[in-house]
């Protein structure tokens, strides 16, 4: 993994406060990309954790899904919504605990970060097509900003300072505060034992062309990240990022296409926020 040439805050990766990934979440993250997995396996996996199963059923029975019947079992839920959707709901339920367990003073910042990551997953998923490479874009988008989770847990006052400074250049601010969320995110993905694409997306989602031939999944998550900021969901007070001509060209898009995508997704914001609220409540 490429090292960044600058002094950084020292992170003790052996510290017990470093966020961990539940073993069930690790398994669920691989499910959407595994065509051999069936609904029964997903249901049995979620049912091993009764509290998780309750949270998933609460979301499935929420007003957002507006199902005509009360769903009382995970197996029934997988029949109605599909095992990929249920696996995603369960993964979100597990990961959100990593963002709401912070002290009250920084919790709003953590929740905004989680919303940004969640919506990036939703937007990235709209770029998926038949026969796409593994792993799926949703899970890559969901975990693209893990480095900020390290800063929240190890130096929360620094994160708040970064999050509350206005009209800043984030690269310059990170240099000033001796942080590198991209590098730390790639490291955490490695510590969690996630496949290489998760490490690559964390490291390069702001600079995909550091890779000589960036993989399509990296380009798509990079664009999704930019779009979510265009939609106004950003943990930092900075002007919305614009996609480079090189990024658009690599995805066979132009500025007009990009603007049309953003406008279409703005119309879907109510739906995406509804899903987010149903998971968080």
Helix and strand arrangement:
Blueprint: H1 23-31, H2 39-47, H3 50-60, H4 74-81, H5 83-100, H6 107-125, H7 137-142, H8 146-154, H9 156-164, H10 170-177, H11 181-191, H12 196-204, H13 216-230, H14 245-250, H15 255-267, H16 269-280
Helix pairs in contact: 1-5, 2-4, 2-5, 3-5, 4-5, 5-6, 6-13, 8-9, 8-11, 11-12, 12-13
Structure, explained:
The protein folds into two domains: 22-100, no CATH class; 105-281, Orthogonal Bundle (Hypothetical protein af1432), CATH 1.10.3210.10. It is built from 16 helices and no strands. Helix 1 (23-31) runs antiparallel to helix 5 (83-100), helix 6 packs across helix 13 (216-230) and helix 11 (181-191) runs antiparallel to helix 12. With 281 residues, it is an all-alpha fold. The relative contact order is 0.13. The mean pLDDT is 89.
Which features characterize this protein?
mainly alpha; 16 helices
